[in-house]
Amino acid sequence: MESSGQTVSKSHPGPRFAVGLTGGIGCGKTTVADLFAARGAAVIDTDQIAHSLTAPHGAAMPALIDAFGPDYATADGALDRARMRALVFSDPGARARLEAILHPRIRDATAAAALLADGPYTIFVVPLLIESGTWRERVARVLAIDCSEATQVARVMARNGLAEEQVRAIMAAQVTRARRLDEADDVIVNDAGIDALLPQVERLHRFYLDEAARLAEQPSQRL
């Protein structure tokens, strides 16, 4: 049946329920995402996509070398992340050039991965979800992984070997903890280890399953 140029098709699959998972550096986004993946969720990590684009001979490397010069590539053809990090923190123009190269490629790769995603719902891991300004309308829920700033600093210092001032500079470039929590629909607190994480993940997994099932029951509309 057609009405106003729209066709309703119950056989066509409806929209897929999607969650945007975010959090400040060191909050444990990957740990939580892995727990959702273990329960069957399709997890697409934009940070992993960015790493693949800037790995040795990655798809973004020719454009990055053209924009920043060969000094920003390592001997094996990967992005020199430490050198680039130092540049973009001191030069907003360089950050803009970097993002202009990477963000469209990350977006395209993310969309391609989403088309192939399996599982009852999709979780997009997006470290700068709030900062981007575009992800909020692409997901049904925003899930923030939260911990104290002291915990963030300690984790990143131990994991990456960075000095405290370097970690705090990275944190300062991200949105504040208060804003992230204010914009989140759901929050998982990751201050107390895996045993404290498990019930939080399980509760939200059940909720997301219910939301995904409810969305799947809605007939889709196509032009």
TrEMBL record:
- What's in the keyword line of the UniProt record? ATP-binding, Coenzyme A biosynthesis, Cytoplasm, Kinase, Nucleotide-binding, Transferase
The UniProt GO MF terms for this protein read: dephospho-CoA kinase activity
Predominantly, its location class is cytoplasm
Q: What class of enzyme is it?
A: transferase
Which residues bind ATP per the record?
G26, C27, G28, K29, T30, T31
Using the record for this protein, list the coiled-coil segments as residue ranges, or answer none: none
| Enzyme Commission code | 2.7.1.24
Q: Which Gene3D superfamilies match?
A: P-loop containing nucleotide triphosphate hydrolases
* One Pfam match: CoaE
Catalytically driven reaction(s): 3'-dephospho-CoA + ATP = ADP + CoA + H(+)
Where does it live in the cell? Cytoplasm
Instruction: Copy the pathway line from the protein's UniProt record.
Output: Cofactor biosynthesis; coenzyme A biosynthesis; CoA from (R)-pantothenate: step 5/5
User: Where does the UniProt annotation place the signal sequence?
Assistant: none
- Which purpose does this protein serve, as stated in its record? Catalyzes the phosphorylation of the 3'-hydroxyl group of dephosphocoenzyme A to form coenzyme A.
Entry's family note: Belongs to the CoaE family.
Recorded protein name is Dephospho-CoA kinase
